[in-house]
Amino acid sequence: PSPRRTFLGRLPLPERNYLTDALRTETVGGVILLVAAVAALVWANTFGSSYTSVSHFHFGPGVLGLHLSVAHWAADGLLAVFFFVAGVELKRELVAGELRDPKAAALPVVAALCGMAVPAVVYTLVAVLGDGSTGGWAVPTATDIAFALAVLAVIGTSLPAALRAFLLTLAVVDDLFAILIIAVFFTENIDFVALIGAFAGLAVFYLLLRFDVRGWYVYVPLALIIWGLMYNSGIHATIAGVAMGLMLRCTRREGEEHSPGERIEHLVRPLSAGLAVPLFALFSAGVSLSGGALAGVFTRPETLGVVLGLVVGKTIGIFGGTWLATRFTKAELNKDLAWADVFAVASLAGIGFTVSLLIGELAFVGDDDMINEIKASVLIGSLIAAVLSGVLLKLRVRRYRALFDAEELDEDASGIPDIYEQDDPEYHLRMAALYEKKAAEHRRLAQVAGAASNKPDSPA
Question: Residue 460's pLDDT is what?
């Protein structure tokens, strides 16, 4: 019989290095996102009229159908950058990451699908039983990886690389299906002329990439044209971003240290995490948090459905889907971890912010009061999920710290963690030389100490 596949096992070194770089940027961006969200809440609840005036201020070329409000530019324009990075991440996962092997991909894909289906079911049940609107069923289905990593940074938990990779892969698959939900369920009227123009632009973009044409001055104007046509087609403009991201080559050719997709993602990710997403949060998270509004979150079926979907639905969906997938694929959990760790990560994935806010605006377009309450429920649900996951992760913090330190240990200063070199004969030679050097130093210090102790006392 074939050996059982290890779930949450050690990552290959290149994948670990990529993950470390990517999550470092996302963590910093997540902290900025937290600051932007708090700033939006303070601004909206202290100087609400100025917040509304700035958010609704319109600018842009009206002749091109792009005379939009500031909030609209943030949601449709800046988030296209976020979804572009998501597209590149997905492409890389499919060709070089956790999703390249169908058997290995089954676990995170099933977990992500269950983590979207169960919250949608929870919301729908609460809405139907409470005689509310089922239009917001998709709001609690999203996971915000930047916000989740910001929570990890705040609580100071050093998750092992395998758990972080699982969380990132969940978020990537989650983003893909969120994009499909936006495209399928929140597109009403389509301008086929503009849509054909957008597809023609994407075809030109693809051909330029295949012929290795280089130069940002070629691709940036073309990307703006594609985005503008996609927006005017009636399909959400962020779809253009993910489509262009999926077209980038993410495999390395001979002599290449990084693929074009990895290089471009490395350049664009800080712009997405540090500017685009925080600005979207600044003009989307500014909701009124009066006592009555907060109380209404737990009494109105639509808002209660969002909270329960994020906190309960996400946790049960991801954990249950993962457990079932391991049973059917005969995968074996890493012996260094426990199912409690998977449950904690599943609860952490209940932090839905960026995409949840976007879907909330699309689901109840035209109903400003409902949008405000849905946003409040997203914030409260995410906060509860953050606190719950923080408590669960803190219970295992010593174990995580030990595993993290073991992954980072590099005693021979080779630049490669020792755990990845244990099967290399040269590593053992370096370690033997290192230990001999340390032993010689200890012997020398002992001799010096012995000589000092035998030396007669000097006169006062």
Answer: 44
Q: Stretch 387-395: mean pLDDT, rounded?
A: 90
Are residues 249 and 137 part of one domain?
Answer: yes
Residue 219 belongs to a domain = no
Which of the given ranges, 73-77, 181-185, 311-315, 390-394, has the highest pLDDT on average? 311-315
Helix count and strand count (H, E) for the chain: 20, 4
Q: Is 332 helix (H, G, I), strand (E, B) or coil?
A: strand
Q: How many CB atoms lie within 10 A of CB 282?
A: 23
73 shares a domain with 177: yes
Mean pLDDT of the region 432-444: 72
Closest CA relative to residue 216, chosen from 255, 257, 263, 253: 263
Q: How much of the chain exceeds pLDDT 70, in percent?
A: 92
Same domain, 362 and 445: no
387 belongs to a structural domain:
yes
Spell out the residues 6+ positions from residue 285 whose beta carbon is closer than 8 angstroms to its own. Answer: 36, 37, 40, 41, 353, 357, 375, 379
Tokens found for residue 434? 């290192």
Q: Are residues 391 and 444 in the same domain?
A: no
**Total residues found in the chain within this entry:** 460
Please give the pLDDT value at position 219.
94
Structure confidence by residue, pLDDT tens digits, 205-226: 999 999 989 898 999 999 999 9
Return the closest-CA partner of residue 206 out of 269, 268, 260: 260
- Is residue 430 domain-shared with residue 282, that is, in the same domain? no
- The strand pair at 332-333 and 68-69 is best described as unpaired
Task: Answer yes or no: are the C-beta atoms of 376 and 303 closer than 8 Å.
Answer: yes
Q: Of residues 354 and 317, which shows the higher confidence score?
A: 317
Q: Residue 101 corresponds to which tokens in the numbers above? A: 């092997």
Identify the three-state secondary structure at position 69: strand
Q: How many domains does the chain have?
A: 2
Residue range of the domain that includes 436? 418-451
